Amino acid sequence: QVQLVESGGGLVQAGGSLRLSCAASGRTFSAYAMGWFRQAPGKEREFVAAISWNTGRIYYADSVKGRFAISRDSAKNSVYLQMNSLKPDDTAVYYCAADPLGKTYYSNTYSQRSAYGAWGQGTQVTVSS
Q1: Helix, strand, coil abundance in the chain, percent, nearest 5
Q2: DSSP H helices in 1-129
Q3: What's the confidence (pLDDT) of residue 21?
Q4: Strands 10-13 and 123-128
Q5: Residues with Cβ within 8 Å of residue 71, at least 6 apart in sequence
Q6: Which of 12, 22, 120, 121 is found 20 to 30 A from 98 (Cα to Cα)?
Q7: Residue 89: φ, ψ to 5°
Q8: Across the strands, what pairs with 97?
């Protein structure tokens, strides 16, 4: 019953910025963590960033540290990804994910796809050179 909807993707030149949003809904929605993954054509879906709802701790992939920032709005059950200094290598479909069962929290692992049980439809981010 959990639904995740991403928005904010688009086309941007290298060095530019985009802000992605993910809104979660559901009558009994709750999550231990929410995060962002991305998948480029021909590549595996990879971890980008996550935030723990329990502790507030934030995790980033090394490739985006210093450029991307994840944040949350607990009242709106939303998570955001501010992307700055974008590179062509950032081009991918970006997916929002949520962990409703606590796998991330109890395993203390926030970067594995298997820890997340709910996924959005994805939003395309294209960075031109």
Answers
A1: 10, 50, 40
A2: 103-107
A3: 98
A4: parallel
A5: 51, 79, 80, 82
A6: 12
A7: -65, -15
A8: 35, 119
Tens-place pLDDT, residues 101-121: 999 999 999 999 999 999 999
Confidence of residue 26 (pLDDT cuts 50, 70, 90): confident
Decide if 92 contacts 70 (C-beta within 8 A): no
Does residue 65 register a pLDDT over 70? yes
> Whole-angstrom Cα distance, residue 42 to residue 58?
28
Contacts of 75 (CB under 8 A, 6+ apart): none
Q: How far apart are alpha carbons 106 and 54 in whole angstroms? A: 11
The residue among 35, 85, 29, 90 whose CA lies nearest residue 58 is: 35
Answer whether residue 38 shows pLDDT above 80: yes
Distance, in Å, from the CA atom of 42 to the CA atom of 13, rounded to the nearest integer, reads 22
Mean pLDDT of 57-83: 95
